[in-house]
Amino acid sequence: MTVTMIKAPERPADASNQRERRRTRLRTITRAALTHERTQLAYRFAVRHTSYVAGGTRVVARRAWDGRTTARYERMIRAAEAAGLMDEIKEWEQRAQSFKAARHKRRMDTLKAMIHAPKAIAYATTGGAGILLMLGILLAWANHDAHDVLTPIETVIDLVRWTAFIAGIVWSPALFAAPWIGLAAVWAVGRHQHTAPQWALPIQDRDLGGPITPSIVVVAFRDLGISALRKAIEAMGDVGAAMLSPIKLAGCGVEIDVQLPSGVSTEEIQNKRRKLAENLNRHEHEVFITIPPQPRTVRLWIADSGALDEPIGASPLMLDENATADYYTGSAPWGQNLRGDAADVSVFQRHILLTGLSNQGKTAALRALALWLALDTTVDFYIADLKGVGDWRGFLGLARLLIQGPTDEHVAQATDMVEWGVEEMQKRIALLEQSGSTQGVTREMARTDPRFKPIVLIVDEAQVAYGSGAIGDDKRPYGGSKATSRYFQAVKKIHDQGRAVNVTIWEGTQDPTDENLPKRSREGNHIRGSLVLGTESQSKMALGEAPVDAGAAPHKLRRGLDKGTLVVAGEGIKMEPGQASVTIRTYFISGDDAVVLTDRAKARREGVATVHKLEVVKPVDHLANLAIVVGDEKRVRTTEVLHRLKARDHKAYEHWTGSRLKALLAEYGEEPGTYDGYPVVRWESVQRALERREEEIEEAQ
Questions:
Q1: CA 106, CA 249: separation in Å to the nearest integer?
Q2: What is the 3-state composition of the chain as percent helix, strand, coil, each rounded to the nearest 5?
Q3: Side-chain half-sphere CA neighbours of 77 within 13 A
C-alpha cells in the first residue's frame, strides 16, 4: 500500500514581515500624530479650559460655603492656634459668634414672614383691588361713563396676560441657556484665578520665574503630592499663609521659613525638592532646603530665575594688589554665599578636605585658599600635586617642597612628605612637653620661634595615594586605605595631634568612597567641602551624614554648570544659627592669575629654594629598637627604656618622652604598665605589638 504525503500550502515567506511593517508604520503614524504641534496645542487647550471650569466651580462653591457657614472663621481660628496667637483666637471666636447670631436672626425673621405671609397677601390683594376700584370710579365720574369703573382692573389683567405670554416665549431659551451661562461664569472665575496648570497656559500668561508670594508658596506645598499636607492646607483655606514666615530678600533670591502641619516631616519635603522647585516655577538648582533650629520647619532659599547662572566677579585678591593675609586672625576670601554675602573662611589650625567629581573646580577652590595664605610670610608650604599637570606650578620658589606627578614614585614621595610632617609634629610636641606648655603653640611663639612656624601640607588628588599599591622597603604599602598604609597612618596622626603645634594638612580628592577616602581620614578634617557629586551616599561621605540630613546636597548640583560651587560643612566659616552647611560660589582664579598672585607672594619673602623630593633618611624601625632595648627582661622602667633608646640612636630619639613611647605602643593596641608606682614597659606588650604588626603586613599582602 502506497501512502502519498500531501504538503500544506506554504504561506508567503514575507507575510509576517508585512504585518510587522504595518504595525511599525501604524506606531510611527500614531506617534507622529500625538507629538505633532497641533495635537499638543489642542491637548493644552482642552486641559486649560477644563481646568478653568473645574477650578472655577471649586472656587465658587468654596465662596458660597464660606458665605453660608462659619467655615472661614474656623480656618482662621485653626491658623491662629497653629501660630500660638491667643488674642486672634478670641477675636475670631467673637466674630464667629456674631455671624451665628445674625444668621439665626435672619432665619427667625424668615419663619415669621412665612407665618404672616397669607394675611399680608390678603391685605395686599384687598387693598390693591380697592385702590383699582376707586381709580375706576374716579375715571367713570370724569368720563361720565359707568363702564370705566372696571377699566383699571382690566388693564392690570391684560398686563398679567402679556407678561405670561412673553415669559412663555422667553422661558424655554432661558432654561436652555442657563447652564451655559453658569458654565461661562465659573470659567471666568477659574481663568481669573489661574486654576489651570502652568504648562497648559499660553506662554504670555505663564508665571515663569516670577516673584515669590505667600500664595505661590502655599500652593506649591499643597501640590507636592503629600496627602496630610494637602488636607491641612485645604482646611486652612485663605489663611494657609499662616504657616509662612515673612519673605525676606537674601542675595539674589528670597528666604522663607515654612512651619509644617502635624503629620508632615521635614524629610518628606526634602525628598520632594525637584517637584517643589517646579511648583515654584524654578529649576531644581534654584531652590535650597535646609532645616532651621525650629521644630517641624523647613527653610527655603529661592533664587531669582537665572540668577545662579550669572558670574560673581573676580576674587578680591586680584582686585587689591596690597591684600595681606594673617594665618591667625585673618580669613581667606573664598567666594559668596547664596545670599550674596562674602564667604570668608579661617584656616587657622584647621585640616581641610575638598572633594567632588573630576573637572568641577576642586583644585581651583583648594588653590584659592593657599594663594591667600601665601601672602602670610610665616607659613611654609609642602605640596604634592598627584595630578601633575602644572596646576600648582606657581608655587615653585614659594613652597619648600613641590611634588608633581601621578606615578607610584610620586606617591612614595608624597608619603615621605606627610611622614616628615608627622616627625616634625612629634618633635614640636616633645619641645612643648619639655617647656611645660599646656596651651599648644601660641601666636607669639610661632612669630618669634622658627621651630613653631605654621606648616601646611597640601595633597591634591589624594585618591591617587589612597589607591596606590606601591610597597616600601619595610614591606608596608605606601598607599591604600588599610591600617598598614603608610600614607593613611601619617594623615591620621596629623589629624590627631597636628593642629595644636601648627602642622595641618589639606587634601583634595575625587569621587569619595571608602576605598579612596577612608572614613577615619575624612572625619578628621575640620572643614569639609564638596563640589558636585553623583549620589547622596557620596555626599554623606564627603560632608558627613548630619549636614546632608539637614539639607546639604552637593549631589543636586549640576555637573558642568555649577563649577566652583561648594557645599561646605565644619568650622571656620560663618553660618546662620543652627545651620549645618553653607553653599558657596567660589571665586575662580585661573592658572595664569594664580602665577600673578604667587609672584606677588614671592616678592614679600626671602628666596625659597623649592625641592622636588625630600632627602629621606632610612626609616627607623622604632618597634624593633624597643624590642632590642627591652631584651629578655620581664619589665623595664620607662625612663630606662628612653635612656637606652637615646644611647642606641641619639638623633632619632633625642626628643622622645614617655608620651611618645606610649603613642608607639598604642598604635598596636598596647600601653605601658606600672610596677611599684613607676611606669614600665613590659616584654610581653612589645612582643604582642610585633606580632600584631606582622599580621597586618600579611593581611595587606
A1: 49
A2: 55, 15, 35
A3: 14
User: Is-contact 272 300, C-beta < 8 A?
Assistant: no
Residue 98 contacts by C-beta under 8 Å, 6 or more apart in sequence? Answer: none
pLDDT in tens, 42-90: 887 888 888 888 888 888 887 888 778 887 788 777 767 655 667 778 8
Q: Give the C-alpha separation, 326 to 345, whole Å.
A: 12
Q: Are 242 and 236 in contact (CB under 8 A)?
A: yes
Residue linked to cell 619589665? 635
> Is residue 488 helix, strand or coil?
helix
Return d(Cα 347, Cα 325) in angstroms, integer: 11
Backbone angles phi, psi at 403, to 5 degrees: -105, 130
Phi, psi values for residue 505, rounded to 5°: -130, 135
Q: In the numeric block, which cell numbers belong to residue 193? A: 484665578
Separation CA 303–CA 100 (nearest Å): 46
* 258 CB-near residues (< 8 Å, 6+ apart): 217, 221, 243, 244, 245, 269, 297, 298, 299, 300
Q: How far apart are CA 476 and CA 489, in angstroms?
A: 11
Taking the CB of residue 549, how many other CB atoms lie within 10 A of it? 14
Question: Which residues are registered as beta bridge partners of 585?
Answer: 336, 565
Find all residues with CB under 8 Å of 475, minimum gap 6, and list them.
697, 701
pTM of the model: 0.62
Compute CA distances 148 → 144, 160, 657, whole Å: 9, 19, 138
The 10s digit of each residue's pLDDT in 170-211 is 887 888 888 888 888 888 887 777 777 666 777 656 555 668
